[in-house]
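Quick board copy: two proteins, each given as sequence then tokens.
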Amino acid sequence: MQDNELLNIPSSIPRRSILKSIVGIAATGALRSPLKGEPLLKAKTQPASELANSIGEISRAPSGLAAYELCEFKIPLQPEGLEKLNPYRATEMALDAEITLPSGKKMRVPGFFTQDYVVRDSRGIPTKGTKGWRVRFSGREAGAYKGKVELRVKGKLVASRELPPFTLAESHNHGMIRISRSSPRYLEFDDGAGYFPIGQDVSWTTDVTATEPGVTISAPMLPWDKAFLRWFGRMGENGANWARVFTKPNFYMESGEPWAWELENAARLDKVLELARQNGIHICLCFNAERSDEGTCYKGSMDLMRNSNTAWGRLLSSQELGFEQFFTNALCQEMYRDKIRYVVGRWGYSSNIFSWELWNERETISSQEGVGQWFRDMTTYLRSVDPWNHLIKSSAHKPWSPEYWGKDNGDLNDVHPYFGWSGEEGPKNLGAFIPEFASGVYATGRPFLVGEAGIARAVSTRYGSGSELADKDVACFHLHEVLWGGLFSGAVGTGMLWYWDEHTDLHDAYFRFRAIANFVADIKFNHESFTRGETVAVSTDELRILELTGKQTHLIWLRHRDLSWYGLAVEKKVLQPVGPSSLTLTGLEPGSYRVEYWSPEEGKLLRSEELAAKGTVLEISLPEIHSELALKVRPLSHRVA
């Protein structure tokens, strides 16, 4: 729903004429010379002195809140002199709160303009009389807070008012997610508790996917609210704690006029973020996914930004520009910064935000002119306006993308290995392929995610179409390989499956999350400083070995050499058990060790035993292995909290 009422735009005005209306675009001439910095909006405002009392009485925060819980303030503004300003454009008007923590530290939080909605039959019904400014805040300290709200018009401070004081109690919430201070390849919360992401992409809903040309979907057709309720509920029940969500298309705010966000779509994301909180899911929120799609499997479905009926398309076409100029155009840069500011102001309070992600697979953008500098600039701006300092994740599908990796591009890197898109031979065994594919980013020493992985359904290979091959894997063993392959690649979490609806949900494979969640439950990744190991040898060549070596713990994944999703689902291989063999683990401290034997498939501890190292070597007698076995090896002196 467009906010035309606020902006005084009659519905009868043609869309292209709106660019010359009171929305904020003064004249076509101004649009055609954006690099001169000429502002779009020419609305007249009262002198600053006459706006000094424009902030009305601010609502109080609810009593009984604890640290990291949402404190929302309604900020009424007296409309006289402000009604023709665009609330989504910071150069016209910007509202911020400066909040003083009990320790005396200050946080500056962007305000945002919104309207309340009630969801009925998966549609948002606007609530009358709720349109206005809000400030959302969550504090990390227990104690008394105070603050003030400031209103700026055209960059000048015109009004200020004290926030009603409030108090936050101690909280059981672990806080925001950070790079671990002691093990920087891994993650932890503000309070030092470890966080190991387990999950999948749930980027959009099945009913949207079905609208793509030529696509047939066998998964249940669910609208956005019922879909996320189902997915997050099943994921949370089975130990998953991470999901990646695209704002496009279910929560896309830029589908109308420039600087006029779709508030109903924003309200949808409010609901989804609350569902995430209820189910213990932390969301990687991806802002954009546009790419070069001509002639590809997506058939333009990722092309929302370039479409002429979106805010970006209209802003560019009004300047007689195309998508190729998006990253270098001053007005597009300004509007994107305002989008970032809105996103942070509306959702930055939440400790269920895992990270921000500016763009999915940035190297697939058709025109790379100015892209690198744009990402560096927007990353810098995002850090400057986010007082909670959420992680920022970059995204690339290539195995080696050094130009995209580094602190100027975010805190976390990302790789996307697929059968089909990343090759046809190696990915037939995703469990072995994913660590190999991630070797380049692992070598940088920076934390990274396997943020997407799976079987590319839309790709044709010499073995058949990806969809036909994937549909044969009704047990979703490739999900199992993605999860465990991510763990043993040295990533901050599991690998994250793409095709959540047509695989995980359709085949009810949520139990795959529970299996690996059980295995890692007592591992303190943020203290172990795990690295890929080469200290294990086995007495047979019938087993594949993957290993992580930590300060206290050794993790070992032993797999039948013929075990793979392709072998099981497509070739229908019957694995012959690998007879009893021996394993040698070197580089240990002398002493006694506890060895745990786990079933990766079931996530169950099979048995444990105590063994003594002979000098720096531990010899382990392996049982007969039908498919795979996982080991945890720890000193007896190691205590698991």
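And the next:
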Amino acid sequence: MGRGRSVATPRMVIAVVATLITCLALLATQLEFDRTDPHENIHHNKPHPRHATPRPRPMRVKGENVLLKIQNKLVATTDAPYVCVSLDWWPDAKIDWSHHTWNGSSIIALQEVHSELRRALSSLNPVALRVGGTLQDLVAYDSEDRASPFDMDCPSSFRPAGDRAAFEGACVTLDLYDAIETLAFDTKTSLIFGLSGLHGRVRDEGKCPKCDSKNCDKCWSGRWSATSGGARSLLQRAAFHAKAGRGALSAVSLGNELCGQGGIAAHLSPSELAADFRRLRAEIDALFEGTRTSISSTGRPYIVGPDCQLPLEKAYDYYASFNKEANVDALAFHLYWLGAGKLWRPFRKKLFDKIQGAAWPLGRGFYAFVNAYTKAARGTPLWITEAGGMYGSGGINVTSSYASAFWYLDELGESAKKSIQVHCRQALVGGHYGLTKRLGDRLVPRPDFFATKLWASLMGPRVLSAQIRDPSVEDAYAPAPVADCRAYAHCHRTQTGDVSLVVLNGASRVARRVALPEEFASLSRLEYHMTAPLDVFDDQVLLNGVRLDAVDAELAPRRVAGGPLTLAPASYVVAVVEGAKFGPCLG
């Protein structure tokens, strides 16, 4: 018999193929190294560049070089001061997303560090100070005519409760108001004070049909009264200060987020609130004299309201109805476009991308809300009296971080372009959105404190139109914005003809060179470059490479003799173009 034929198994085939591949690879390598190169001798013991690891070559990233365009006209004006900060009533017992966020930071507790408050406000000058918030509606002021439920002992503290506001009311003495107004006067700060909108009303028993929250089960009936909670006594004290030449009260509001079904402490209709504001107008007119022309001038305090945050589909109807009847000097609203503070964990990873991505800077929501309120205002000035990025005391390591400046400065800039007259940051102290945090007897600044200070001191009330453009688009009329690089331009606050700029580079990996308009390119500048020490979510900030760690830290600029602005990745710069003699800024 003949020998049997051997059959190749799959394992044998794989082995043969692998051997062939290995041999071919070795042969190719040998041929590559054996090739003669006329430049081989000059490399001595260094490998030829073809075989060495190549040195990284700089990548040309689209948008690295950009242009700044500024129109030769004013597009809006704001009040002066435009920037405002707030103090709130929240006690230590307040809990947000399982965290105590207001330790020693209420208006009452901060009297223990009065000198630190004075330092902080003096450093921020010129700004306005708003005193108010959710619990202002549950505060009574010491007087003889108070009525239930505001006839509690005075002084007394807030007590936890199970409704949406989470606390029962408190009573404060007028000495506290004196201290607040004296603080504002001594620091040349315009004071905006929020009165309770529930004085004179009685809380009904049983479920409230106007409430859409499971945590809210009461309605308030009646109408606002200046005497039942001590508001008239407080206004009389303010009028006395004004006549004595030591007044600082510039505006008064009535109630905080009491609008409709989504109200916090109550759920009032536009007509109910408007009638209350007319009663407040009568009290103001009877006590104060003169006509105010700006928040920083003298005269009767402005009346502003209704200080609400409504769903977009309800904002126009409610505010339009209120504005027809209320006779206010400014329509005031609240804005937290980043959402709830409880989302801080995912935002910790995604916020910076959200800020600089397709929806950056503010997303459609900001413009939709502002447009709705503008339409409802029908010429009445608009104020944003509470803006902290994320509601519910802010987001942990988000609104307290360096990254927060990118939404905040953008909102300041866009709001000014929309003719918002006053913009109040929530808060000066307290929560995770506070510009400072209290540590013992000190107020320690967070990064947005210095963003606030730079804007308030350098950006004047006259607003210019500025845009960052992609230079590869030659058509001057074609829309060519660079999504993650933004710019704002105002006439300088004090130097006639000079122009102040805020430029934000939201790109986390791309440095930017910003070519200025031709008429500015050769002029000297003062530049304030702000960067994070390591991570954008740090609670520290560097100015021109120097860490800022005190509320009264000196902000020393860098002087540059013309040329483009250069921004590091994830940084922003505030710059002053000296000697610009820019037409819109000369008048």
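Board note added afterward: The two ends are 117 Å apart (CA to CA).
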